[in-house]
Specification:
Two copies of one chain form a homodimer. By secondary structure, chain A is of the alpha+beta class. Chain A contains nine helices and eleven strands. In chain A, the strands form two sheets. In chain A, strands 1-2-3-6-4-5 form a six-stranded mixed β-sheet. Chain A has a five-stranded antiparallel β-sheet with strand order 8-10-7-11-9, with helices on both faces. In chain A, strand 1 (about 35) and strand 2 form a beta hairpin. In chain A, helix 2 packs parallel to helix 3 and helix 2 (about 75-90) packs parallel to helix 5 (about 195-205). Chains A and B meet through helix 1, strand 2, strand 3, helix 2 and strand 4 of A and helix 1, strand 2, strand 3, helix 2 and strand 4 of B.
C-alpha cells in the first residue's frame, strides 16, 4: 500500500492553490450506485436511501482563520451549524436534519468557551429542527488552533431537490436578501434561508439554486458552469447591504443568501406572491446561452473573481 | 446569545477529564422524533429516514496524538475510514455507506503525504463499498497538526440493527479475533469486521454487539451498563495476540474486534457454523444479573479500567 503509484511529488501543499489541491485529491474517489450527486459538484451530496433522498454535507472552521478567539463562542457555535444548514436549504432540504460534530481543542481552551460554543450550537439546532446526534471532542497539542467540523444529514423530497445544474438559458437570476459587508456581523448571526427555499421549491419550482458563501463573483460562475450556460449580470440592480458598493456585494462573501435561476414566468409569479417582507427577492440578471459570454461589470470580472 | 446562563467557569479543558467534558457538553443536545439512538449511547447514532434506518458516526484523528508523521500516510488514510466502518459493522450495518471527509492541514504538509493519505482512503472505500461523497480540505496555521475527521452514513436493516443495550443476564459474551498488541501494526491495517457482523446478525441474532476500540476493560463495562447487567469474565480464555498477556489483551485497545452477547443456544449454533476460519470466535464470559458484581481478574479490574 505504501509504494507510490506515481512519481513522488516533493512540493508541499502551501505552494499550490486550494482549487488545484481539491481537484487533485477528489479525482478517482470511490462511489456507489446510491450516490446521485457528490458534494464537490453541488452544495450537498445527494444519496438515495431506499425510497428517500438524503443530503449530506460537511463543513469545517479553524480558529485564527475562520474565526478568532475574541469572537463570542456562542456566535461561533451558531455559525458552525448554520453554514451547513444553508447548504441543505439551497438544495431544497433542511426542514429536519441531524448533525455530527467534531471539536478538536488544545488543553488551554477555556471551559467557558466550550460552554458558549455549545450554547450557540444548541440554539441553532433547536431553531432549525436539527438533532445533534454525535458530539466528539478530541485533544490537540498545546498551542494548536481549535478545529470544528460539522457533518449534516438531512431529508429532501424528490420534488423539492434543486441542484446547481438545472438552469436554462433565459432563466431569470435572483438572490434573496442583501449582499456584501457580511464581516460587520451577519457572517456570525445569519439565518439560513430554509423557509425561503422551502417556499420557493413549493411555489416557484426554481430550475437551479445554490447558496452564496464565497461571494457572487465566485458562486454565480459555478451555477452557470454546472448549468452549461453563460450569464448577464445587471450590477446596478444588486441588492447591497447599507454602505457596500458593487465590488463589496460581489466579492465580500459569507452572504449565505440563495442564488436562484427560474423561468421568467415563474419569477413573475414568485415576486408577486413572495411572503417574506423582511427578505427581498431581487432580479440580478439572466442565464444566457453558452458562448454568449459573461460581460464584465465595470472594473473587470477577473478582478472580482480573483 | 452571549450572556452566560450560568456562573462562568474559569477552568480550561486540560484540567478536567475527557469523560467529564463529554458529559458536560452532550447534555441537553437537541433531538428530533427521527432519532432512535444517539452516538454517545452506542457505537453509532440510529436515525429513521422514511422506512429506512440510517447509522451515523463521526471519528477524528489528530497528528502527534493518534498517528505520527512517520507513519506511512496510506495506512493513516486506511485507518481513518476503517475506524468508523468498524462502528457501522458492530451496529449491524456497513454493507454500503457514504463518507464525508474533513482534512485540516498546515501549509508545510508534503503533497506526497496527502497523495498517500487519499490512496489509503480510496483503497479502504473501494474494498468496503463506501462512497466518498465529500472531501473538504481546509488550511491550518503553520505548525498546527493535521486533523482528520470522517463522518459516515450507512444503511442498516431493522432486522440486523444490534445495539449495546440488548444484552440479557445469562448471555454468553464472545469476541472475534485476538486482543492486545495492536500498536505493533494491527491498529493501522485492521479489517473492520463487516463480514463477520453481517453473518452474526443473519445467522446468530446477537442480543447486543459493539466494537472493542478502547480495550475490553473499558468497553465491556459499557456494554454491560447499557444492557443493565453485570458480568463474569474468564480471563484465561481471552484470545490474545502472540506475545500479549492478559493485561495487554484487556487494556491495549485499538483491537477493532466485535464484542458480542448472545443466548447460550445461539452461541452454540454460531460456533458450530462459524465460517471465518482465520478469525476465531471465542467465549470470554457471561452477562450476569445486575447486583451480582463484576469479579476482578487477578491484578484488579480498576487497574485495568483506569
Amino acid at each position: 500500500m505504501d509504494s507510490p503509484r506515481r512519481r513522488r511529488d516533493h512540493r508541499d501543499i502551501g505552494t499550490m492553490g486550494e482549487d488545484a489541491l481539491v481537484r487533485r485529491v477528489t479525482r478517482d474517489l470511490p462511489t456507489t450506485a446510491h450516490v446521485l450527486t457528490r458534494a464537490g459538484e453541488d452544495d450537498c451530496a445527494v444519496v438515495r436511501r431506499g425510497r428517500q433522498l438524503v443530503l449530506l454535507k460537511t463543513d469545517a472552521m479553524v480558529a485564527d482563520i475562520h474565526f478568532t478567539m475574541e469572537t463570542a463562542a456562542a456566535r461561533v457555535g451558531w455559525k458552525a451549524l448554520c453554514r451547513g444548514l444553508s447548504d441543505l436549504a439551497s438544495s431544497g432540504g433542511g426542514l429536519t436534519s441531524e448533525a455530527l460534530l467534531t471539536l478538536a481543542m488544545p488543553p488551554e481552551t477555556p471551559l467557558a468557551w466550550v460552554d458558549g460554543f455549545y450554547r450557540g450550537l444548541r440554539k441553532a439546532a433547536r431553531q432549525f429542527h436539527c438533532a445533534v446526534v454525535g458530539g466528539e471532542t478530541t485533544s490537540m497539542p498545546r498551542g494548536a488552533p481549535i478545529v470544528i467540523s460539522v457533518a449534516l444529514s438531512g431529508e429532501v423530497s424528490a420534488k423539492r431537490l434543486t441542484l446547481r445544474s438545472g438552469g436554462h438559458a433565459g432563466d431569470v437570476l435572483c438572490v434573496t436578501g442583501v449582499l456584501g459587508g457580511s464581516l460587520r456581523g451577519w457572517h456570525l448571526d445569519f439565518t439560513p434561508r430554509i423557509a425561503e427555499a422551502q417556499w420557493l421549491t413549493q411555489a416557484a419550482k426554481p430550475s437551479a439554486m445554490m447558496d452564496v458563501s464565497d461571494g457572487l463573483a465566485k458562486d454565480l460562475p459555478r451555477l452557470a458552469d454546472a448549468s452549461g450556460c453563460d450569464f448577464a449580470l445587471t450590477p446596478e440592480t444588486l441588492p447591497r447591504r447599507r454602505g457596500c458598493d458593487t465590488t463589496a456585494a460581489l466579492t465580500d462573501g459569507e452572504d449565505y443568501e440563495l442564488l436562484i435561476a427560474l423561468s421568467p414566468r415563474r419569477f413573475a409569479r414568485a415576486v408577486a406572491t413572495w411572503p417574506f417582507s423582511r427578505v427581498p427577492l431581487t432580479c440580478i440578471g439572466r442565464l444566457t446561452p453558452l458562448g454568449s459570454g459573461r460581460p464584465l461589470p465595470k472594473g473587470g470580472w477577473d478582478h472580482f473573481a480573483l
